[in-house]
Structures are given as structure tokens and as C-alpha cells.
Amino acid sequence: MQRRGEQRMGKFLEAATEVLNEKGYQGARLSDIVKRAGGSMATLYRAFGDKEGLAHALMEQSIHDFGQSVEELLQSTLPPEQALENAACRMVEEILSPVRIACHRIVVSEGPAHPELRDWFLAHGVEPMERLLSQYFAREALAGRLHIDDNAAAAKDFYTLILGGLILRSINGRIDASDIPQAQQQARASVYRFLQGTLPRDRPSP
Fold first, then answer.
1. Distance between CA 39 and CA 149 in Å, rounded?
2. What is the pLDDT at residue 201?
3. Residue 15 pLDDT
4. Is this entry keyworded Signal (predicted)?
5. Cβ contact 138:152 at 8 Å
6. DSSP designation for 29
């Protein structure tokens, strides 16, 4: 029974992702999601409460998946050149996932109309990831593997350099998951540029 319940919740989330990406948060109706996922409106309400609860569930899923890439970076013993490149490629996969695109469209495109969802996502998704990146840079700077004066600023710079343009293009529909290989190639180049200003002066660039 529990497994069937989890499968039902997964179908609701999958259907919600599709409907949100097609119609936007404002235009999405719970009846459309139920029709696509199967099941009943009563089951959806019991699981998520309402459309806002469903959006929160999608955001939590995306935050968890993206967070794994940062956690792997924190646990990595590889040189920064390799560790940051691996992390960037993993981040690209999550940023271009349908769930993350749906979340970003809610936060960016419809954020002014739904500030509670926007602010929750920033507080529980973006800001914690920047803090974890800052911890990584602090560790690597202390070990002498990176030359960074402001770890928090470096975290914001890295996040923006690797993902900023990607997020914008995915929101407006110019790229999606089918473009991951090319986006990862661009991310590797962005990591290289980032490292030009952070590797110790007496250390050869990658």
C-alpha cells in the first residue's frame, strides 16, 4: 500500500511538472493535473493540500536533487579543477531538468504575483546552496588550493557564472534537458574561466 501511495504521489508530481511547464503556475489547474496523472482530486488534496502545496513539493524535490551535487563537492578530495568541473556538470543536469525549470518559472516569471513561493524557494534552495559553496571555497582556500579573499562572494560568482544564463534561457524555453551535453561543455569552460582568478599564483592553471 505504501509503495502504491508513493507511486501515486510521483505521478502527481510528474503531471504537475508537465502542466506547469505548459501553462504556468497561474494557468495550471489541479483538475488538469489529476486528469493527466490519474487518481482523484481528493487524493491530491490529501497529499498536497492545494496548488501551492504541490508547488512546494516540486521545489523540495528540486532542492534535494540539486543539493546532492553540492554535497558531493563538499565531500570530494579531488583538486578544485576536477571537483568544480564535476559539480558544475551535475548542476547543469539538475538546472535543465523539467522539475527545476518549472520551479524557476514560478520563482522568476510569476514571483511578483506569488512572493511567498518565490521567497521560500530562495530561502530554502538558493541561499543554502550558496552557503555550502562558500564552505567549500573556505576549505580549499585554507588548504592553499585556491586563492580567495571573500568566500561568500566567490560562491555567488560561481553560481551566477555557471548557472545564471542557463536558468534564464531555460525559463524562456530556448533550452531544455535535450541541451545538457552542450550546456555541460559551456559549464566546463566557465569553470576554467573562474579558476583563472582563484588558483594560487604559483600554481599552473588547468
1. 54
2. 58
3. 96
4. no
5. no
6. -
What would the pLDDT profile of 107-138 be if each residue is shown by its tens digit? 998 889 999 999 999 999 999 999 999 999 99
203 secondary structure, DSSP code: S
Q: Which residue has the cell 550546456?
A: 183
Question: From CA 155, how far away is CA 149, in angstroms rounded?
Answer: 11
* Cβ atoms within 10 Å of 3's Cβ, excluding its own: 7
3-state secondary structure of 1: coil
CA dist 133 and 151 (Å) reads 8
For residues 57 and 150, what is the distance between their CA atoms, to the nearest angstrom? 34
Q: What is the pLDDT of residues 142-182, one digit of tens each?
A: 999 999 999 999 999 999 999 999 999 999 999 999 999 99
The topology (CATH level 3) of 52-196 is Tetracycline Repressor; domain 2 (1.10.357)
Q: Cα dist. 139→50, 81, 114, 124, 148 in Å?
A: 42, 14, 37, 23, 10
Per DSSP, the three-state class of 188 is helix
pLDDT tops 70 at residue 204: no
79: three-class secondary structure by DSSP: coil
Domain extents for the chain? Answer: 52-196
d(CA 74, CA 102): 27
Question: Which run of H or E residues covers position 122?
Answer: none
